[in-house]
Amino acid sequence: MKDAVAIMAGGGPAPGINTVIGTIAKVFLQSGFRVIGLHGGYQSLFSDEPEITDIDFELADKIHKQGGSALRMSRYKPKDEEFKTDFFVRYNVKLLVTIGGDDTASTANRISKFLNEHQVNIQNIHVPKTIDNDLPLPEGTPTFGYQSAKQEGVRIAQTVYEDARTSGNWFIVSAMGREAGHLAFGIGAACHYPMIIIPEMFNKTPVTIRKIVKLVLSAIIKRKILGITYGAVMISEGVFHFMSDAEIESTGINFTYDEHGHPELGNVSKAHIFNVLVQRELKRLGLKVKSRPVELGYELRCIQPVAFDLLYCALLGMGVKKLYDQGVTGCMVTADPKGDISPLYLKDVEDEHGKVQPRLVNINSQKAKMVYGFNHQYITEADYEKASKLIENPEDFDFFKILNWEPFSFV
Asked: In this structure, what CATH number is given to the domain that contains residue 392?
């Protein structure tokens, strides 16, 4: 029986998955391996009858430039007691390649330990995938899919902003990002949005619905002072990750609830939630401003990868073979800006529970400070007098007071 490499993808889709799969298949087929694609993620991996497909050169060559995933994905998280070695022995698997984000990486780490404890000589290499860009790769190294999703997000966000200018309205735009604000920040900054709200901003004060709404109003009021009647605000859905159920329910939005009694945010547009709350506050303040919600989410995940990700994902796929030949296991494959491949061991980026910790936006970086300091519009102490002609308490909408930040200094 031929030595085999098994490939599976977990979590949600991201542009470049097929590029990774196709590249890995090509380089391992060239070395005489059988390449097995596993459908259904970890649930299939540990089932009695895993659903597999053999990936030959023709299939690999066909899919490498396509969006989506040729291997059906799953968010299933197996418990430790579900782990078994059957699949690996049955198909003579020498390498398990997992493609995914932090949850998939954390599970891959657990599997790696399990196989090692059971003396099964199988290497495991993880390819870091997520449009959220939140895996702990070296500074400046993106997760694959992020650049493509950002590019498409910018295209849509620019169109939305042009609509705002044309119609004289405001748009409340929400972008994906489970815990981190990379995607919202990247899209909003590229489009010169006057306010970008991400969870990392709340490093000196708790995240609340009221503060988020105040930040939105701060931009709207500032632009009114400047004589600008339109605009758009970008909000990362990751802000909800840091709120309690009680805080989320305080919005008054009608939610469905999961089996644990938590609001199912996935069933509601986050942009809609914030737009409703902003409109309520505008009405309370007596400000005549129209706003509309726009959600940036599933539209970004299965687009055809841009040139950056096509090359980057090919490098990662070839990097898997390079690390395999070196005998490396229990790691993520990384490619630096020069294209040099190196392993990032999962044990070095996990917490005490074995979970890979997310990489957040560095809110103290020069880039973040310049975007928020130079490229945003919001109420500060210097605006109180003019703002008082529109609202009673301008200080309530002071950007720096809301966040408990000190004013920026670039001297």
From this structure: 3.40.50.460
CA-based nearest residue to 164, from 225, 234, 268: 234
- What's the mean pLDDT in 201-212? 95
Catalytic residue among 132, 134, 309, 383: 132
Q: Is 209 helix (H, G, I), strand (E, B) or coil?
A: helix
Number of compact structural domains in the chain: 2
Strand partners of residue 331 = 125, 345
**Is residue 383 among the annotated active site residues?**
no
* 357 found inside a domain: no
| Three-state SS annotation for 324-384 | HHCCCCCEEEEECCCCCEEEEEHHHCECCCCCECCCCCCCCCHHHHHHHHHCCCCECHHHH
Q: Which helix (H) or strand (E) holds 196?
A: strand 195-197
Judge if 291 and 325 occupy the same domain: no
Token pair 């070839």 is found at 318
In tens, the pLDDT along 261-290 reads: 777 777 788 999 999 999 999 999 999 999
Domain containing 324: what range? 4-145+305-348
Q: Model confidence over 75-105: pLDDT tens digits? A: 888 888 888 888 888 999 999 999 988 788 7
- Mean pLDDT of all residues belonging to the chain: 92
Together in a domain, 132 and 161: no
Helix-then-strand count for the chain, H and E: 14, 11
Burial of 183 (0-12, 13-18, 19+ CB in 10 A): buried
Rounded distance between C-alpha atoms, residue 177 and residue 239, angstroms = 9
E strands in 39-189: 52-54, 93-100, 123-128, 170-175
Query: Do 241 and 184 touch, CB atoms closer than 8 A?
Result: no
Distance CA 271, CA 395 (A): 26
Q: CA–CA separation, 393 vs 130, rounded Å?
A: 42
What was the pLDDT predicted at 260? Answer: 65
Provide the β-strand partners of residue 335.
Answer: 341
pLDDT band of 114, cuts 50, 70, 90: confident
Shared-domain flag, residues 240 and 387: yes
Reduce the secondary structure of 3-46 to three states and give it as a string: CEEEEEEECCCCCCHHHHHHHHHHHHHHCCCEEEEECCHHHHHC
pLDDT at 410: 63
Residues 25 and 117 occupy one common structural domain: yes
CATH number of the domain residue 121 falls in: 3.40.50.450
> Residue 27 falls within a domain, yes or no?
yes
